[in-house]
């Protein structure tokens, strides 16, 4: 295995190396059977177990899980803030140099961290420094000249849309603006990987979207790999290519976002999705009864997981359900170009004794169908 190449450690050499190191593509991170146990006064706490997956160069990869699932511990193994107690984490930079993070010396770890930027939930800005001094800090620590620092800081502030705030202090900025400063600072040394630790959790929904859009834009423009940990489904849905669901220290589900969200296989994933699942409005759930009665009509729930080829075929659907079919409720969304959602349709033309047959026919169409109950046909 190649250990990180040692770059020249002269101020000018560093600055030149930083310029030259603009990644043509992002870094790769491979978790190989990673485990992490903490020794605590109350005994050992197993935070990670058997973690194995690879984040590919240029991907936006999300890790989602509830509080205490192991997200922070996992992301912190990438830049060596936590050391695995089992397995290894391999980081490959844009030049193809590979490092086993857990085995690096302090000097090698410092060099690895130039290739890995990180942003935090609470921004971690220096309150006594202006925006431009905060952003320039990593460059100053690397020995860049004042002129080099000023040039790069101007570039970065333009990138995150804060050129007019360069002389302000963190206390004069909104949460979203503070996170933009955090992003600019994280990008100062042209990292190949950007780690985002609950980066939008302290922000309101609108600001969250603008920060996520900025991360996506940066990923596209600079080609760097983004690893994002969060408990917010929306953050994953909005920008990630793939997602891993972590539960009690283990990855329980992993795949393209549209697939994991459109057809969750694991209870942990479903639980995280629940607040966003199609719950019935109260008036409708009050009208749906579990068994057929004299004047009831069946209610079909048709679920599009995104695995169906093409757009939902409503003609085929209503062809099976017959005349007078009524759309009671539903939503369809698109994730990564895949239509997903659920439609609830009352079908008065389907007699009770034909319901099973209609269901079987619906299930020959791509979406998944079930009868969820019955409503009064007179309504
Ligand atoms: N330094 C530590 N010492 C002891 N236990 C720890 C330490 N860091 C984390 N843990 C434990 O490891 C488990 C995973 O914690 P971690 O912070 O990685 O979870 P998380 O998914 O990031 O949670 P949250 O979303 O609440 O931040 C938890 O049980 C936690 O208490």
Automatic annotation (TrEMBL):
Swiss-Prot/TrEMBL keywords: Amino-acid transport, ATP-binding, Cell membrane, Membrane, Nucleotide-binding, Translocase, Transport
Entry-linked SUPFAM superfamilies: ACT-like (SSF55021), P-loop containing nucleoside triphosphate hydrolases (SSF52540)
Organism field: Pseudochelatococcus lubricantis
Family assignment from sequence similarity: Belongs to the ABC transporter superfamily.
Pfam families in the cross-refs: ABC_tran, NIL
Keyword Cell membrane: yes
PANTHER family cross-referenced by the UniProt entry: AMINO ACID IMPORT ATP-BINDING PROTEIN, METHIONINE IMPORT ATP-BINDING PROTEIN METN
Keyword ATP-binding included in the entry's annotation: yes
ABC transporter domain segment(s): 29-273
Annotated protein name in UniProt: D-methionine transport system ATP-binding protein
UniProt-listed Gene3D superfamilies: 3.30.70.260, P-loop containing nucleotide triphosphate hydrolases
GO molecular function, one term: ATP binding
